Amino acid sequence: MRRHLFAFALFALAPLAGCFGDDDAGYYQSCADGEQCLSDTTCFTVAFERDRDGAMCTANCETDADCPFGGACFGLVGDPVEQRVCFERCRDDRDCPPEFLCANAERDGEIVDAICLPR
Hints:
Layout: E1 3-6, E2 11-16, E3 42-49, E4 52-58, E5 72-75, E6 84-87, E7 100-107, E8 110-118
Parallel strand pairs: 1-7
Antiparallel strand pairs: 2-3, 3-4, 5-6, 7-8
């Protein structure tokens, strides 16, 4: 079952520096810090509900076309620099990595996409 993600409730909590590590996580994979992400990604902590957050390796974007593997570009509302980052698209939780869930992304009360978010 998908959970609703309200675009205005997606917060950037703490982007962490990205660099190479031994177990490099690619785009849209979970991470604990930037050392786990590939060199062209950063570990971002995101929250889609005020009391829940998680971290994933991703990159900044301007449009969906900037996101690899058919990803979706969404703004991090609440982020002081108003960054936009790539998210993996999904139809249900099975399309997402095990530690992620598939959530409806809404704008102005209308569902516009479904994306994987860290649990």
